[in-house]
Protein 1
Amino acid sequence: MGLLTQLVRGLVRGADRVSPFTSKRGPRSHNKGRGAKKLGVLTRNKKFVLVKEMVPEFVVPDLTGFKLRPYVSYRAPEGSEPPMTAKQLFDELVAPRIERDVKDGTFDPNNLEKYGFEPTQEGKLFQLFPKNYVR
Amino acid sequence: MRLSALLSAARLRLPPGYRHSMWPPDSMAARLRNPPGQRRRKVFVEPIAKDDWKVFKGDTVQVLAGKDAGKQGMVTQVVQARNWVVVEGLNTHYRFVNRTAKYSGTYIASEAPLLLSQISLVDPEDRKPTEVEWRYTEEGERVRVSLRSGRILPVPPQPRQDGIVPEQWIGEWDGSRGWGDVVGDTGGQRCPLACTDGPKDTSEEDALAKTYRPSLKTFEEEIMDAMGIVETRRAKKSYWY
């Protein structure tokens, strides 16, 4: 009705040419998708075979006793912590262990894997570079 | 183009000859007085740019002309469209409110708006009227400076657009306390739903609690370890350009 009143007021004449022509507009016979991906393969007999690996599955941990909720109370003050950097992560986790080993005299520069060093990203499920997971 | 632009504008769009009054444009009183299609004689105001506006709610100003000339008061309302400033308790006239058929109404004092030319900002330490200018400090902050003494006039903290005062916000509220407490605390907001946390709000302590433990695993790897998911298959190598 809002569209009609504006047409009646004489501000705009004619159909709306600018808004995208989605599946919500047009006659009943107008069937249009909204860009969902195909989750399988169409075989030569025109039968669709679902590939289970392409179906997204949400892995949700158990949230009992989880205190955070969608919105935050107005009483909480504004502000945020600075984002975590690689240097900060190293300083907090790896540097103390290396210092301790250097003091004990057991530091081996050829065996850095025990501090979390990864020489290659091959063979990992979640590779950091090039990033192969969606966050 | 015109229709889409009209539909997408979320802000209240006022007609070109709208007569601004002391009520906000989306209140019932303003909508009764300004029905759509009404055209009134134009009110001429001195054009002042939005950046040059110097008087804000909560400022102390001195009235220079009118019945209460020479008195100082706090600004309670500002209507930039008409260069109006309403000062608490000054420039008042008396009227009856809440009239019914039998009751003649309560006789109260109501403030009339003053134009910017009848108002002057007041130096914070002198407490005398001064001319004020917008200038920039060494750090690059834009402040109001009194021209006579060079003192900075800090802009008073402005209330939020949605009318919520975080200091008066009550956190978790179970129905055990009576409504009398709520009214007293919030000084005006009657309904406890309007000033307490709802079921989807995180409480203040939970929001500020620091529970992050840094680790070298990614978020997804941590969840897999926590839930005991083992994934030995690896994705085939793919190329993108």
Protein 2
Amino acid sequence: MPVDVDNYSTVSGDTCGSSSGNQNPPPKFTIKKKRSLPGMPDPDAEVIALSPKTLMATNRFVCEICNKGFQRDQNLQLHRRGHNLPWKLRQRSSKEVMKRVYVCPEPTCVHHDPTRALGDLTGIKKHFCRKHGEKKWKCDKCSKKYAVQSDWKAHSKICGTREYKCDCGTLFSRRDSFITHRAFCDALADESGKAQTDPSSEPDPKVLVVESSPSPALQPAPPPVSAPAPVEVQVSAPALPQSTSAMTSVMPIQSSELAVDPNSIVEEAPAPAQAGLNGSCSSGVSSVSNGSSCSSSVFASLFASSTASASLTPPQPRAFTDLIRAMGPPECPADLAPSTSIEPISLCLSTSHGSSIFGNAGQERQQYVPPPQPAMSATALLQKAAQMGAAASNASLLRGLGVVSSSSSAQQENLQWGKRQVEPNNASVAAGLGLGLPCDRSSVLKELMMGTPVFGPKQTTLDFLGLGVAASGSPNGGLSALFTSIGGGLDVDAAAALFGGGDFKDVIRRS
Amino acid sequence: MFQDESSPLSSSSSPLQVFSMMSLSPNLGSPYPWLRELKSEERGLYLIHLLLTCANHVANGSLENANIALEQISQLASPDGDTMQRMAAYFTEALADRILKAWPGLHKALNSTRIALVSEEILVRKLFFEMFPFLKVAFVLTNQAVIEAMEGEKMVHIIDLNAAEPAQWVALIQALSARPEGQPHLRITGVHQRKEVLDQMAHRLTEEAEKLDLPFQFNPVVGKLENLDVEKLRVKTGEALAISSVLQLHSFLASDDEHHRKKSPLGSKNLNGVHLQRALQMNQSTLGELLEKDTVNGCSPSPDSASSSPLSSTGSVKIDGFLNALWGLSPKLMVVTEQDSNHNGSTLMERLLESLYSFAALFDCSESTAARTSLERFKVEKMLFGEEIKNIIACEGTERKERHEKLEKWIQRLNLAGFGNIPLSYYGMLHARRLLQGYNCDGYKMKEENGCVVICWQDRPLFSVSAWRCRK
């Protein structure tokens, strides 16, 4: 039996062991037994190094009598029985008893080292195929390719069978990865009650971990807390779903974006540009101290010079997008402003109107629990107030409110006010009051009106109201008219005090 | 009797009618239960109304009325609530502070145990940097301008008038070391009040430079900017100088304004009232127009308020001096980032109005950025926005440092000081826009005006960035 044994001794330097009983030309190279790493069951096992050809050979087991090849040893034995071998030859060589371990023929592979040999021939074959082989098997449902047929079969069985779909559209066949993803996915349609791993929708006061010490910002600290649960929703997780599936170099940027997320100040995937993100991605936790270093890397990517790294730029917007999606609703409440301000300014905002505000708020996309009343933005409120101050359209409303006329003071030039040029105070006050919140201002009014019968001049009020607002007609928009109105009544008091030399004013001194 | 007058409104359950039904009881101390019934919009509007009323009272010196208004506001305002509630909370605090300043002893006593926690201040500024894109955009634009101005320069010296955030320069270091013509020799001089901040910055930057093998030197200058001696900046001949000023220049406008004397603490008073009246009467229409425009698109041309319009008024001595000193250094580039709002009106009400709009935008920003329960957001709002509001509203004279002005004013000033505008590069703006888009929040907008960039929230300009060169 031609046994080409290229013996190359390894560290031990012993004589080489024999090869197996293969008759086939594909040579086998046996190496002396080596002690293997812990985890290898048998340090005395014989290490067998097969050439790729041998490894891939389908018929490894060859009958020595007729040179017929078999895929399995058992089949070979069965076949040999048929040869009616004399008893002596029937036994296989004793070396069958010896444990064999196999090394990968690919020199660059870690399993090429005898100390890292694999114990199973089938295993080493599959390993070689998977890692160093060409992927010949393709799943027909999805586009995954496999080098080992059994892998391919196993996959196609489950491909498309059980699918978990996250609200962001990502599909998972495995429950655990689905759950992990969902914990970080920002597209939580429902509120916090959703996933079990989706804990607080509120940011934790853990934020204080941030601390004041500026120094932490210096070190891109490895995620101290990364191991524990990927709990914090506040993690700018939006970056994660996409990234967990594709841990590419984009990750560093994304994670650095994560650092920017204010909500997740405590827990953010750390640092810039290290590949160590993979693990931390799913947990995505680190201390804020990474903030500065992370943001610096953000800038770094941003500032790729014009000649370089145009490739860096594409990920950024996405990264920012992913990140910042966590920061708030895509649609800002201010959008509500136009619609609501156009509404009849009657402040009898019935609940229906209120609910329309609710309806408009795209708050559900927020990570944090949307406030129970999605409020109008302050800007919108100011605009509305301004409009109402100058409102001419709600005379009837004002009437209805029984808005009190102002004092009869005709002091238009409020020395303090200068800017107002409204003549009929009454109207202006009315207009101001016509904000329609005739809440308990009576006391104020009383003081203001200085004894002017509060309800007396209602008639005039009406008239003024009818005209007044319009008459006040200065280009005073909005809030200035409001001022006017407020000031109108105040004039009385102020003026009186001024001239009366209210002593407390003299006392008042600026510091 | 109020009830008699009120004609029934459309729906019997209208809150307004409820209001009018309520007795006009003058017991100020009693809680107003119906206040809690207010929906947020109504509450917001009411808060605005109350704020204006209160400010009016404060401006007039009618403290009792102011007190009433404050009481009412306090029922509704809350730093944890919606944007308007938060704003109201900080504005009333500022107004109250203003009133209190009339009794200096009392004011000092109440603040006697207040320690400024440096660490918190630093943290808050970092939070602001991270939560909002404004500073980032400014940095992007600044850096790009620096890169372009320093093309071909071998020795680059950068002066940062407020060296607090290393991220900006880290990015610049990276960009400069990657530039095609080779690395320059880079020197950064940072000015800051706190040594720790500068130390940290030095550490971070030298670390970065070493990583990239860029010849680098960081010179810290500890001290207040207003006391800065430009000699300390050690500008050498032969090096290309760039100055970066982020939100620093406006404090130089603080001065002992003539308009506000000691005797009239609460704003426009009798003494200066006359001046004011005349001045303001001139400006009535403009202010009105201003406000109208405000309501329309939130952009306000700067109302020529009496104090700040003549650039050569007393208020500008300091700033002119400083700008001249900077000009004397012959910088190749100076990038100025400032708030783009007019918070430097001479009267309280002017400033209140303007700041209501500006801070409404900022608080809306904040609302879109973080949850209401977010502690960071609260800190930023309280320690940054709140303090600014307090300064704008409650302080006068040299104490009032937050003298934000509109971009046009700054352009005028810088032109007068001998600087010529350099349009910001398209590439830089592209970067900045991408950054803003990355925030994925529809509110942020960027406008270009005459080569300068204005960052807005919805339509309200908030910050402006402009680049300048030394005009000989």
